[in-house]
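Complex record, four chains
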Amino acid sequence: MTSRTILIVDDESAIRDMLRIALEMAEYRCLEASNAQDAHGLIIDEKPDLILLDWMMPGTSGIELARRLKRDEVTANIPIIMLTAKGEEDNKIQGLEVGADDYITKPFSPRELVARLKAVLRRADPQSSSQPIKVQGLCLDPASHRVTINEREVDMGPTEFRLLQFFLTHQERAYTRSQLLDHVWGGNVYVEERTVDVHIRRLRKALTVDQHENLVQTVRGTGYRFSTKAG
Amino acid sequence: MTSRTILIVDDESAIRDMLRIALEMAEYRCLEASNAQDAHGLIIDEKPDLILLDWMMPGTSGIELARRLKRDEVTANIPIIMLTAKGEEDNKIQGLEVGADDYITKPFSPRELVARLKAVLRRADPQSSSQPIKVQGLCLDPASHRVTINEREVDMGPTEFRLLQFFLTHQERAYTRSQLLDHVWGGNVYVEERTVDVHIRRLRKALTVDQHENLVQTVRGTGYRFSTKAG
DNA sequence: ATAAATTGTTGCATATTTATGACAGTTCGG
DNA sequence: CCGAACTGTCATAAATATGCAACAATTTAT
């Protein structure tokens, strides 16, 4: 995968479709929500890398959702791009105040959208894609593509590497096999869910250095979780 | 490649095209950005050798970008040439204050541009391109264009030399074949990705003196990496 | 306690990815 | 114009990774 996940929040399905197509063309993984409630749920579950948020929506408005997200520490760092209709530009100020990272007025070209989006993503986490992630002696360095435990090199296959990378960036939360397939294997791949078990096994085996295999925990009836707290 | 990478930052695509043509004629590799945001991303990703920066741009202005770059240690040493329109010359002082290495007023001749650019590049890194790089007995001297291992001369072809030079200046980091083609062969060259394998092989063969071929490591599923740490 | 679910392990055939050797076209200096 | 040095491609071999199915072990529900 390696590709980022974008959440599209808009009440008009036509617009969502349009956005989805544009983003999928650009190799992004898409999630959709037609209202603020669903959106919030998806955000908690999937921790998207960026949110495309429609300004005007029935029920909780986009701005309200944005405000809520920015208030919560967990979601505060997810960049938001506001979608506003022409003429609503006054809202620009309000939107940026709330914490939107950019805003774009409809109608817009897919190219422009993707360009802005890339810019925001880059600005948002200049490091996350290349900064090593460490936890309890375990260190994964995306740049050199290496994993070490207490300075000792650990060997694993490409899939296990991606799996670990995903876990490290999404700790302390359980994922179903299906979700893991989506995130680590990539959207449209047909693989048995049980295959995840096998790779989890392989990852654990690779991490078997100073008990580090305990970081990958089984959540019975659900799937797996990466956690530093005892399972 | 040997050729340097120049980043062109200007909001007018016509000007970008003009600059690109001039620079490509002079054998430089070009990157383009139409705004400060994209530019910043490219700078982080590609570490260009020099930046041609338009003074006036919508959004974050050129001067603002320059200021930001000079503030960050990682990008502070990348030379910047400011492009200013005639009449804006007052900005010259301001630009140089911010840390621009030169400035040039539109309109200008391609010849003049290239001349200035060469001058700045020469001034900018008098050593980095000619200082020998040593690592574990392996030594590459750009000046004499020689490679030695423990004082013994090592023989290799031009491409292998550039490849090694690139690796030595970008150690401990995995590169895809595509990235290597971009950096070592140069931007718009159509060559099979597999060709990289062959040159890696040739480079390794050349380095087969006291295990030094282990410095060039395979990163399965990704590409290659130069590292002094065991693979 | 027993059956049903769910997860852990392992071996293996298959699919992918790399390494290598050979070859033909080019370039460059005599 | 010739020969040596380089390059890029291929075909083939070798190395690894992957997915799956079968069976064991564990947990949960009845």
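Note: The mean pLDDT of chain A is 86.
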